[in-house]
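INPUT
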Amino acid sequence: MEDYRIVDLYWARNETAITESDLKYGKMLKSLSYSLLSSREDAEECVNDTYLGAWNAMPMARPEFLGAFLSKITRRLSIDRWRHDHREKRGGIAAFEELNECIPSESSVETEYENGVLSQHLNSFLASLTKEKRIIFLRRYYFSQPLSLIAAELGMSEAKIKTVLFRLREKLREELEEAGLL
Amino acid sequence: MKHTQEEKLRYLVDELGRVDDRFLAETMTYRSPRTLSWKLPTAIAASVLAIVVSGSLILGSIRPSTPDVGTQAPNTPPAQNVPDTPLSPPSLDALLAESTHAPFGTIQSADAVNYFGGTYLVWQTSDSDTLYRSRELTDKETKRLISLIETGTPVGSVSPEQLCRVWLLCGDGTVITPYLPNTAGNIGMSVLFDYEAELLPSGELISCISDILNNQKGR
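OUTPUT
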């Protein structure tokens, strides 16, 4: 079912919207959550909470890309859950740990972090990439997919994916340094 | 206040969750040309095309030569002006696959596609990464083509295997395909998106595209 039809169901408060969302995006959402939480039960819970979140967000929101909209809810819930469960522990999610390289080392930025400011620069950064590089970046750092899966699905070697990501992290770091954002 | 490395990383991770929905949609639907399962080896693709095209030609050459014995009296001469068996129009796949010799040029890579350079068709066969393009379409042709997309037949739960991918670049950055209903969720923005066919293009739409490809003059 097309996204706009599923959104229409949410707006009409028709619970079939949940079934249709799950049919179309359930597998992707569970995969996203599992890659962050490493637990099927926790991933299932986050995905169920995603549909509740979507139900409550509409009608007000009318997303054009329902999959993207749902994935943002799932990602947010999964990251929050991970942080709650790991607040006493060191170390983090492997994909996110790599992003440490994007943070300028000599930065002394002291301003308050505002929601949305950095994301504008991230969008510009992503728009400047070729489609394939952008997809590799997002698969790793938004969807937290393992390198082996990215390599298999894009028909490239893992070594190539690692090299691409390394260069993208460097490029992002240079741009964040220049913008004085972190 | 000075931020720790942990706070900076947290901020970066959180802000990644706010990236543009279009980039996420693109990521979710992207299928690498290196791994697309719809891509067939060249020899098989050529064989399938040969069967489709020759099948159409054979059907066209068959004419009924004997009268219907059950309804006509003996010794009655064969009926005159018996209509030919209607031909199935060639599929859009077959039409596009045969149009790779079109003189309108190729585009070397998806990155080189101009999404703001007028309205034109772009297509790609399963056995190649080369992109072929039509001449620029007139406004009338564009409107007709878009209206004919809705005349397609829904394919049901299983998408047919395709030999070609085709897109209509509308000149303003938007991209659509005759294989998907023309709804907001099926419009690409400056991207030749991958898709699974939800519609079978109608004979009228195929005929419209055939006219475009055969008529070099256009504007």
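end of record. The two ends of chain B are 63 Å apart (CA to CA).
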